[in-house]
UniProtKB/TrEMBL annotation:
Protein name: Bacterial repeat domain-containing protein
Signal sequence extent: 1-23
Signal among keywords: yes
Pfam family of the protein (one): Flg_new_2
Region (Disordered), start-end ranges: 86-112
Lineage of producing organism: Bacteria, Pseudomonadati, Balneolota, Balneolia, Balneolales
Keyword terms of this UniProt record: Signal
Record keyword Signal present: yes
Compositionally biased tracts (Basic and acidic residues): 86-98
Residue ranges constituting the Bacterial repeat domain according to the UniProt record: 357-425
Length: 620
């Protein structure tokens, strides 16, 4: 069925009177039919489809009609401003992204059904009057071979004008007139498309006229304002009645796969039309079978290789074609008995791809990366990133949950099938206190179970809540590095992700450097964990420490875990000031007092304070 049928002048008039300003003078048409009708059929004479091929952000002067192929119809624009098109996009005709199905004709766009994503529009921008006159659109539409013409389009105002003004010329010159037009002025709607119909069917001089032009101008207040407003146009058509009985003479291929990519081995479609000698689609009066064969290409064409154009229609879309080879330069021939065959333009068949679809379980537990389409054999990397409080568990595939990978980041070779892969996450347990010492007049833990004791001959100076465990009697200068301090033992059985936190403060003459050691065998042997970076300088300032043992698996779930905090020689060379000489790295203790602030030299009689020593872990 056609999407637009020719309507008699009387019906058009009744339609227009129902929606147009009644103040406009309208001449009642003669209701009697043409006493001597010429043979012919209703036809779309010209169509302007505004698609993505129109350049964006460019001042346009001419747009050719898109239908039929090779026609002589075109639209020109004259700006109200001097110097156009160099007017900084003012008083201009430009592309606009404003699709609509109003007045859309599939016949005028290769038989394609309306697709919003393919359509654009044309806008006329303010100002609408100026030193060069007024913004004007002129449609050059030779009507040779047609009569009873109807000009129509969709348009909307966007704050610029109140009405459109129409006239026409039949002489090929600028001799404009609106004689015989029932509605030379028609009202615009703001921010909504409406259908405009200009009935030329009562103007005999327009019939079969090679010089027909139609002019569109604008009316309303403040047209001279340069305010960025516009009027937008779309789906511009000229319909008429053919002056001859047109018969289909040939086939034409107007579309490959709806403009989408074609992939090797995957089904695609082709749209074929029956057309007359003038290249316009012509309906068939009997079912017409169309056969498809490969015209160019090294592969094989298979699937659905024929289709039928129904009676009183002019198109058939043949679905289910398949081509087995990825290559460029492929074309297809359409043939039907009694009609000239057609060969499509060449197109590319891309390599077959398969999809990787990724999901997360439970929802919100993390994010995934790597979904997409891939060719068989291509290297694919998928990543699972847990959200806070969650840890990656496993990748599974399909409804059966088959294990795909246990690695959060996994690379594999794409198979010849689609994949649906789920990343599963598990909630991480919150860290719990295993043991905590606050040193409130005791070395017994305030929470949990564990022991705290002196190491390397040190002595307790005091135990005070808030001031911590004050330790003194460290080794003399140049002796017993990494042996003296405090030792803490606690079982981590049943816990992972072990961490130890504490505060530490040094007096001015005590070492600024501390080393951290750990045991996993109950204190039989000790391993170096690291040092504090000398952060106990300046003295009498509490440094907060956090030691993370998660990278040491032996520290977890271990009844023999322990930590020592011991004084250590400076790992970097320094000048103690007293004496004023250079001490080499790893040869002497470096006092905590800042250089240049006086005070005594390093002394083992100085002291450290340890505050709020806490060992935590996450339950298994």
């Amino acid at each position: 069925m056609k999407s637009f049928k020719y309507v008699s002048p009387l019906l058009i008039l009744l339609l227009l009177l129902s929606c147009v300003d009644t103040s406009t003078n309208v001449t009642e048409p003669d209701p009697e039919p043409d006493p001597d009708p010429l043979p012919g059929t209703e036809a779309l004479v010209y169509f302007w489809f505004f698609g993505g091929d129109i350049p964006n952000n460019v001042e346009l002067e001419r747009i050719d009609a898109s239908f039929p192929a090779g026609n002589e119809a075109f639209l020109t624009f004259t700006s109200a401003l001097d110097g156009y098109p160099e007017t900084d996009r003012k008083g201009s005709m430009e592309r606009r992204n404003a699709p609509t199905d109003l007045n859309y004709r599939p016949q005028g766009n290769g038989g394609r059904e309306y697709q919003e994503g393919e359509m654009r529009a044309v806008q006329i921008r303010a100002p609408f009057t100026g030193p060069n006159g007024e913004n004007t659109m002129i449609f050059h539409a030779p009507a040779t071979g047609f009569k009873d013409l109807i000009f129509s389009f969709a348009a909307m105002d966007e704050g610029a004008a109140e009405a459109l003004v129409f006239d026409y010329s039949i002489t090929g010159t600028e001799n404009w007139t609106n004689a015989g037009l029932s509605q030379p002025v028609q009202t615009l709607e703001t921010d909504a498309y409406r259908l405009f119909i200009l009935d030329l069917s009562e103007i005999e001089e327009a019939n079969d006229n090679p010089n027909l032009k139609i002019r569109v101008r604008f009316d309303g207040p403040n047209l001279e304002d340069d305010n960025g407003t516009r009027v937008t146009f779309n789906n511009i058509a000229l319909d008429g009645v053919s002056l001859s009985d047109s018969q289909p003479t040939a086939l034409r291929i107007t579309d490959i796969n709806n403009g989408e990519a074609v992939f090797a081995g995957e089904p695609f479609s082709m749209l074929v039309q029956t057309v007359g000698e003038d290249g316009r689609p012509v309906e068939v009066d009997a079912e017409t079978t169309v056969f498809l064969t490969l015209a160019t290409g090294s592969g094989s064409l298979s699937g659905t290789l024929e289709g039928v154009v129904p009676v009183d229609e002019s198109t058939v879309r043949i679905d289910g074609l398949r081509y087995d080879t990825a290559e460029d330069g492929v074309s297809i021939e359409a043939a039907s008995g009694g009609l000239a065959s057609a060969v499509s333009g060449t197109f590319e068949v891309e390599g077959q791809t398969f999809s990787v679809n990724l999901s997360v379980n439970p929802v919100g537990a993390g994010t995934v990366d790597g979904a997409g389409s891939y060719a068989a054999g291509e290297q694919v990397t998928i990543k699972a990133i847990p959200s806070a409080g969650f840890a990656f568990l496993i990748w599974t595939e399909g409804d059966d949950g088959d294990v795909f990978s246990t690695e959060a980041e996994h690379t594999f070779e794409m198979p010849e099938r689609d994949l649906a892969i789920t990343a599963s996450f598990i909630g991480e347990a919150e860290a719990e206190t295993i043991v905590r010492w606050t040193f409130d007049d005791t070395l017994e833990p305030a929470e949990g179970n564990g022991t705290a004791q002196l190491a390397g001959g040190t002595e307790t100076h005091s135990l005070t809540l808030g001031s911590g465990w004050r330790i003194t009697n460290f080794p003399e200068q140049f002796t017993a590095s990494a042996t003296a301090g405090a030792e803490f033992m606690a079982s981590t059985a049943g816990y992972d992700a072990i961490q130890v936190s504490f505060g530490q403060r040094a007096s001015g003459t005590m070492s600024r450097w501390a080393e951290f050691q750990y045991t996993t065998d109950g204190g039989t042997s000790w391993q170096r964990f690291g040092d504090n970076g000398g952060v106990l300088s300046p003295h009498d300032t509490v440094a907060d420490n956090l030691l993370d043992f998660e990278a040491i698996p032996e520290a977890a779930d271990n009844p023999g875990f322990g930590l020592r905090i011991v004084s250590v020689f400076s790992p970097v060379a320094f000048n103690p000031e007293e004496p004023d000489e250079e001490f080499a790295a790893n040869t002497a203790y470096h006092r905590a007092r800042t250089e240049g602030t006086g005070g005594g030299a390093y002394s083992g009689g100085g002291n450290w304070r340890l505050l709020d020593v806490t060992i935590t872990g996450k339950p298994r």
